[in-house]
Design goal:
Number of strands: 9
Largest sheet: 5 strands, antiparallel
Helix content: 40-55%
Strand order of the largest sheet: 3-2-8-7-6
EC number: 3.5.1.2
Strand content: 5-15%
Order of helices and strands: HEEEEHHHHHHHEHHHEEEEH
Family: Belongs to the glutaminase family.
Oligomer: single chain
Number of helices: 12
Structural class: alpha+beta
Low-confidence stretches: none
Keywords: Acetylation, Hydrolase
Subunit structure: Homotetramer.
Mean pLDDT: 94
Protein name: Glutaminase
Length: 310
């Protein structure tokens, strides 16, 4: 990573720091965010070397940034054909929590809107697994990716459980269509725990580098997820990862990416790098304003757009 230094990342953070637009987790009501002005940027190469700047050790919930990892886990465990019966791969063009399924199939349009994330969560593990068993498999995967035992944010779980009506509606709609593999209430509860797993920006960049390396853990080369599952997850992130702003993101930044309403955002430079940024204030699409700007600036500086021609 000779062309990427902490000074470069700090310079980019200084460029975007002045943008105070956006709202902090507006769906959590009167929740008082502990770090509303946090800002961080990190990059990890396939050897596991991490360069970072800013508030890079501040912990945050993964929220929707967890979706591609669990989707890839479901693909790895169940295979593409089984997953495809329940989850499509087309951009929806709708907000992430839209109560809508694919016409004619009853599938979720893709794995990165909430309907698809619920369907993917339900596919993890063996038939008959309860919520605790399924979640533990997911938690263990994330622990392997970051190299420590990850924990959940119980306060966020409790708050979101009191207002999970849209996710409950989506889960029941999927169940009605026969495209949810388990009980709706169990799935929504487990999915809430999945979203509340906590990491920091350096760890998220390390996780993203796994996607950049075809499923191998950066540094030691352990195959955490299968190459085919990772290829499909990267593909869906490229077209759907930024929700109804996905087209603008591909046009401007050109990297598979996924955001979370905690303010985190990661991007994948296939074969090279994992990138992560964090800033809690969100735009109207639910994507972090400053994290998106920081990764776009990095992509521009280093010509990381996957469609740039050498």
């Amino acid at each position: 990573m000779t062309d990427i230094s902490a000074d470069l990342l700090a310079e980019i953070l200084d460029e975007v720091r002045g943008d105070a637009s956006g709202d902090v987790v507006p769906h959590l009501g009167d929740y008082e965010h502990p770090h509303p002005d946090a800002l961080a940027l990190a990059v990890c190469d396939l050897d596991g070397h991490v360069v970072s700047a800013g508030d890079d050790e501040t912990l945050f919930d993964l929220q929707s940034a967890s979706k591609p990892f669990v989707y890839a886990l479901a693909l790895d465990q169940k295979g593409v054909d089984v997953v495809a019966k329940r989850i499509g791969v087309e951009p929806s063009g709708d907000p992430f929590n839209e109560i809508s399924l694919e016409a004619g199939t009853g599938r979720a349009p893709n794995a990165l809107v909430n309907a698809g994330a619920l369907a993917a969560h339900a596919l993890v593990g063996e038939e008959g697994d309860d919520e605790d068993t399924r979640f533990e498999q997911i938690r263990v995967m994330f622990s392997r990716l970051v190299g420590r035992e990850v924990e959940v944010d119980q306060q966020i779980i409790d708050i979101e459980a009191r207002s999970a009506h849209r996710n409950q509606a989506l889960a029941h709609l999927l169940a009605e269509e026969g495209t949810l593999a388990d009980d709706p209430h169990q799935v929504v509860s487990g999915y809430g725990r999945q979203c509340a797993i906590r990491v920091d920006t350096r760890e998220l960049a390390h996780m993203a580098a796994m996607f950049a390396g075809g499923g191998r853990l950066p540094g030691d080369g352990e195959q955490v997820l299968g190459r085919r599952a990772v290829r499909y997850a990267n593909s869906v992130m490229f077209t759907c990862g930024m929700y109804d702003a996905a087209g603008d993101w591909v046009y401007q930044v050109g990297l598979p990416a996924k955001s979370g309403v905690s303010g985190c955002l990661f991007a994948v430079v296939p074969g090279r790098l994992g990138v992560a940024a964090y800033s809690p204030r969100l735009d109207e699409h639910g994507n972090s304003v400053r994290a998106a700007a920081a990764i776009e600036a990095l992509s521009d500086r280093l010509e990381l757009h996957v469609l740039d021609m050498a």
